[in-house]
Every structure is written in structure tokens, then in C-alpha cells.
């Protein structure tokens, strides 16, 4: 019975800490938005950078940047929920998994949006050179590369193995599949 009471007290403490963590981020988000994002956007629109204004309206760069900063904030709060401080270890694992997925997704979306915005600026600024050298293919390859790297880092973290061990395992699996299917063509 005492164990259930300890678990009840611990989980209510966790819920209170999560509530404090989420409520304390609200003023910080508005402060970052008002002090950083709005002045940058106003500066770019005020000084007649039409291309930048169009790109900022078309691509949600600031939204993904804010999500990335929010993910860093959640990671910084991870030290408060130390495994020895409560008995429900499964909640810690679920929280860590959700935070890592959120951070990796937000950073990946930020990088992909920046690549798209850069490609759009490139195509509108240098139209004559863009016709001679179609670099949109290179932008697409860069986006695929970013997605693959992000997926590998996320999967290796979620499986709790190092990235080098994960890449070694992928290489061994590719060698095994090559050896098995070497005579099929």
C-alpha cells in the first residue's frame, strides 16, 4: 500500500512539474516572437527587400525556428526529471522519446524550409544563370540527404546505440543482402 501512495505522490509531483514547465514557456515564446522575429520581419519589409518578404510569407521559417527553440527548451528541462527522482520509469522513457522525436522533426523541417527558401531566392535572383545550370536537382538531393541524416540520428538515439554502430549495422546488412542476391540478375 505504501508503494502505491509513493507512486501517487510522485506522479502528482511529475504532473505539477510538467504543468510548470509548459506554463513557464508561454511568456518566453511571446518574448522571443516580439523581440526577435517581428523586428527581423519588419526590417526586411521596411527596407524594400521584396524577395525576402515574399519568401518569409511563403515559407514558415520563423514558425519552425520557434519550434526548434521550444525543443531545445524541453531538452533543457530533461535534467529535472531524473530517473532516481521518481518510480515511474516508463513515463521518463515516453517523455524522452516524444521530446527527441519533436526536436528531430522540428530541426529537420527547419532545415528543409531553409533549403526551399534558399532555392526560391536563388531562382528569382539569378534567373539567367538558373536557366543554364538547373540547380533545383541539387537542392532536392540536399533535402534528401538532410532527411536521411535526420532519420539515422533519430533512429540511433531511439534504439540507444551509437551512430557509428548503427551505420556499421546498415553496412553489414547491405553486404549480407548483396551476398544473398548476387546471382539474381
TrEMBL record:
GO terms for biological process: cellular response to osmotic stress. It comes from the Bacteria. GO terms for molecular function: mechanosensitive monoatomic ion channel activity. Keywords: Membrane, Transmembrane, Transmembrane helix. InterPro entries: YbdG. The chain crosses the membrane at residues 15-40, 61-80, 100-123, 135-155, 161-181. One of its GO terms (cellular component) is plasma membrane. The keyword Transmembrane helix applies. This is Mechanosensitive ion channel family protein. The lineage of its organism: Bacteria, Pseudomonadati, Pseudomonadota, Alphaproteobacteria, Rickettsiales.
Amino acid at each position: 500500500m505504501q508503494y502505491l501512495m509513493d507512486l501517487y505522490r510522485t506522479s502528482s509531483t511529475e504532473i505539477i512539474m510538467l504543468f510548470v514547465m509548459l506554463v513557464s514557456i508561454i511568456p518566453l515564446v511571446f518574448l522571443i516572437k516580439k523581440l526577435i522575429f517581428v523586428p527581423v520581419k519588419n526590417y526586411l519589409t521596411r527596407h524594400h527587400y521584396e524577395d525576402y518578404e515574399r519568401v518569409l510569407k511563403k515559407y514558415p521559417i520563423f514558425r519552425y525556428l520557434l519550434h526548434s527553440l521550444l525543443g531545445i527548451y524541453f531538452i533543457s528541462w530533461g535534467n529535472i526529471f531524473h530517473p532516481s527522482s521518481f518510480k515511474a520509469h516508463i513515463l521518463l522513457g515516453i517523455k524522452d522519446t516524444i521530446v527527441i522525436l519533436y526536436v528531430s522533426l522540428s530541426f529537420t523541417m527547419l532545415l528543409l524550409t531553409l533549403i526551399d527558401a534558399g532555392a526560391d531566392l536563388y531562382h528569382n535572383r539569378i534567373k539567367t544563370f538558373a536557366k543554364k545550370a538547373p540547380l533545383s536537382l541539387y537542392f532536392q538531393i540536399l533535402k534528401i540527404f538532410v532527411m536521411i541524416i535526420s532519420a539515422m540520428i533519430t533512429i540511433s538515439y531511439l534504439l540507444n546505440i551509437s551512430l557509428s554502430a548503427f551505420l556499421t549495422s546498415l553496412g553489414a546488412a547491405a553486404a549480407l543482402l548483396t551476398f544473398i542476391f548476387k546471382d539474381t540478375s
